[in-house]
Write a structure and sequence with these properties.
- By secondary structure, the chain is an alpha+beta fold.
- It has one domain: Orthogonal Bundle (Cytochrome p450).
- It starts with a helix and ends in an 8-residue tail after the last strand.
Length: 509
Amino acid sequence: MEQLGNSMWLFLALLLPLVLLKLKRSDNNGLRLPPGPWRLPVIGSLHHLLRSSLAHRAMADIARRLDAPLIYLRLGEIPVVVASSPDAAREFMKTHDVNFATRPWNTTIKIMLADGEGLVFARYGALWRQLRKMSILQLLSARRVQSFRRVREEEVGRAVAAIAASQPGEAVNVSERIAVLIADSAVRTMMGDRFERREEFLENSAEAIKITGGFSLSDLFPSSRLPSLISGTERRAEANHRKQSELMDCAIRQHEERRAAMAAAADGTVQEDLVDVLLRIHKEGGLEVPLTMGIIRAVILDLFSAGSETSANTLQWAMSELIRNPKVMQKAQNEVRNNLQGRPTVTEDDLVDLKYVKLVIKETLRMHPVLPLLLPRECRESCKIMGYDIPKGTTVFINVWAINRDPNYWDDAEVFKPERFEASTIDFKGTDFEFTPFGAGRRMCPGMAFAQASMELVLATLLYHFDWELPARMPPSQLDMTEEMGITVRRKHDLYLHPVVRVPLQGAP
């Protein structure tokens, strides 16, 4: 939003005479649109979002001021409706789900998907249905997730060993450690090995998330070339896409060379990784929509983003909240240590009995949904929602951040309290619309089980082996919790903590 703000003021300066000509009149072409704040010519409602660098907070403020579960915004040329209540969310993700099951394609997304659509941004239709079925049955099934258990446990062990080896009294960049751990686990799951160009890949992926997140001027004013020239987003997207394609081709070559070497060594059956699955389906053919290499690259990127960015950010927020709430931290650590009774490592078998750790993750997802507006949907055909007209082509956001913190549905909504879920049947499986961090309906995240397994193991392990302290005896209440907006919401500043080993690793001195 900060970049949008700078570009916006330059754009306004060039169009100042038109903007000042008159305020936008209430002309809705006879439609009964949801309520919204006053609008200006050309930019519509954009000036209301510039009050905050975080769109989900700005939209929540507007909804509160208007006391409206649905609000209508005109962001440049783009009509937008935002749902900020469970009832409104249910309308879009259940009652009228099929009518809102496609994604809006702005200029940036078109550039990023020029060679093929992945599951995340695929338009609703035959390809999306095919990719969804493939993901549920072959890529992200419970059996497939379980088959990569060893990878997750090995990578967690490596991360713990690296943290334990840090110099006494030295603060560890927990954000970085978690991000690398989750990324390495995701890459090994996809291609069976670490990627030789990992640093380039991670850097380019982070850039892609920044490019596709937020609101770009060129996406908000698609009919004009001026915003594109001002923002430079299209040039960045094209450069990022070229680099990402090159890296994906390199990763696939590395994967195939490794597979060939292992086959030549004749050392037995090799476990099928996710790239193996995609290449096998590609070679078998017989699909309604052929699986091109461009689509395979897009799916790999989707799997990596869904399997790393969201999980890593959730874990960083979980550790941050535990540091800010020492009693919750102590309760979670006591559960893990009492259940494991000094065993050398945490395994996925141990997670079944760690009920409070699961509640910590649920509460983190409530307070810090990493996709606070989920991913946008688009209205396929004009319809009525809660008595309001939603025109065809309208972009729809579900403000789960606002819903998750609504005091009408949550007691002490701003307090981190995992105990709220102890006697509650509310879950994030897509049926309780006051709590949908993974979405619901047809476009619900298919990688939920994959993310859950990673997050529970990592969090339990960090709590089992270490006590954690803030640097310089900082009071927990002073920990900076500032958010940074991309397509996901992450900590603006990395989390640094002092680790104190409490349960040494097996074989460690």
